[in-house]
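ESCALATION

Customer reports they have been waiting on this structure for their group meeting. Please prioritize. Original submission:
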Amino acid sequence: MNMTEPKVMLVDGMALLFRGYYANAYGGYIRKTKAGLPTNAVFGFVRYLLDACRTFGPSHIVCCWDMGSKTFRTDKFDAYKGNRPEAPADLIPQFDLVKEVVSGLNIPNVGISGYEADDCIGTLSKQFGQHMDVYVLTGDHDMLQLVDERVKVVIMKKGPSNYAVYDKEKLLEEKQLTPQQFIDLKGLIGDTSDNYPGVKGIGEKTATKLLVEYGSIDGILENLHLLPKGVKAKIEADVEMLHLCRELATIYCEAPVACSVEDSHWRPDRAQIATLFEELEFNSLVKEIGKLIEVS
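Update from on-call: job pushed to the front of the queue and completed.
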């Protein structure tokens, strides 16, 4: 894309794939090729990706993936993400297919066993942020901790082309917290989708109030004697879990990820993509990608 300023979009692959699957699965109609291969999630994924490319105009793109459920977080806490149901049967074959499609779009797939996609995105956001603006595309509010001078987190909301773009100012204005305090917020309130509890009985409102007042979990613990009796008792009862949950909530930004600025430079090959989309019977998307590449 011929942009004066280079910018990279780091894509949370699973967030787009699951969203693509559920957006298209409710009516009971599952998109399949003539040969019977289910493609609804991949179709949704590509539509979301193209929409974000149109909206944000990245010159560089990387797509990050989880590599299985065992990570350094499950080593620390067995139940981490232990509540996740099995993936629907018609989604399973699409996990490999989506990566083939991403490769066919000339976008690198990145994932490291033992780490989550979040850790890859966090690491790359720090690396790329030294050279260019970074847009993290996700549906996951955990990523808000990555917001930085040159890193914006783009949360996909319901409906097409509907994004909330967070920089430090927007985060402070809407959530009253700094990116760093987001980690402590998760430590205090836990995360039901990742299955770690935080401090029993402390909700987002109380946690935010405590963080605004005392700055961090450490600040809160140093000032326990000033807290209302009930809140103090809850924190004291769960202090070990609080420390563990803060660790689980922290995105690790030094994962051994190798993806250079050059590798991530997006050069879509129109003919290659047209062939790929025709094979998958994504006929409506052939035109869309054509238009997008013309603009670039």
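Sent to customer with the following note: The chain has a mean pLDDT of 92.
Escalation resolved.
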